[in-house]
Amino acid sequence: MNHKCVHRSHLTPSLTPIVPQQSEAIVIYTGWERHALVGSDIRLSCSFFSWRWTSDDVTFSWSYRADGARDSIFVFHYTGGSPYVDNKGPFRDRLEFVGNPGRRDGSILLKNLDYGDNGTFTCDAKNPPDIVGRASSVRLLPLFVLIFPIQAGVITGAIIGAVLGLLVLVVVIYYLMRFLVARRVFNLSVSKHGKKGKGKEGSQQRQASPLSVGSLTVTTQR
């Protein structure tokens, strides 16, 4: 009976409790609002801050909600070192991953911007074990540039008009300067002649005074 006795301690595997790594908050950054011309390419930046080293399991996700729409759609996802782009949605063949996950950059490039692309893009990032964080959003506003065809005659006329206007301005300034100079000379001449006239009158009065006294003296002696 004793040889049938088996110690259970050798058969029962030891169970080591698995303690999950502690997760810390991750902070995600995007721009607040972006503007771009219709037909151009625009880069939508997304980065994150984490206290841990960048994990090989880092992920980036982009979603899009058009203005006036209630629901968002996923348009891009990066995981396992590979980017996955939605080629069936509104950005088919126009979305490209231009980020660098090793530097915590999950930016995407939207090509050939259309006016209907206006809306809100939201980026979410995970850096396991840091998976807790609030996604960040950026609003995209496409802009139109109105270009009107301009004929060569219109351009020529505008140039001629500008040259004529400049000539008229030069002539007006020339005659205005001549008028101001002539007026200044005239005022100086009048002032100079006025001083000479006063000087002559004073000298004549000084010369006439002895004669008058002499005549009075002669009259008195008589």
TrEMBL record:
Protein's cellular compartments: Membrane
Ranges of Polar residues composition bias in the record: 204-222
Region (Disordered) location: 192-222
SUPFAM superfamilies xref list: Immunoglobulin
Topology with respect to the bilayer: Single-pass type I membrane protein
GO biological process: myelination
Pfam family, one: V-set
Ig-like domain mapped to chain residues: 13-141
Transmembrane segments: 143-176
InterPro entries attached to this UniProt entry: Ig-like_dom (IPR007110), Ig-like_dom_sf (IPR036179), Ig-like_fold (IPR013783), Ig_V-set (IPR013106), Myelin_P0-rel (IPR000920)
GO cellular component, one term: plasma membrane
Superkingdom of origin organism: Eukaryota
PANTHER family associated with the record: MYELIN P0 RELATED (PTHR13869), MYELIN PROTEIN P0 (PTHR13869:SF7)
Record-stated family: Belongs to the myelin P0 protein family.
Name of the protein in its database record: Ig-like domain-containing protein
Biological source species: Oncorhynchus mykiss (Rainbow trout)
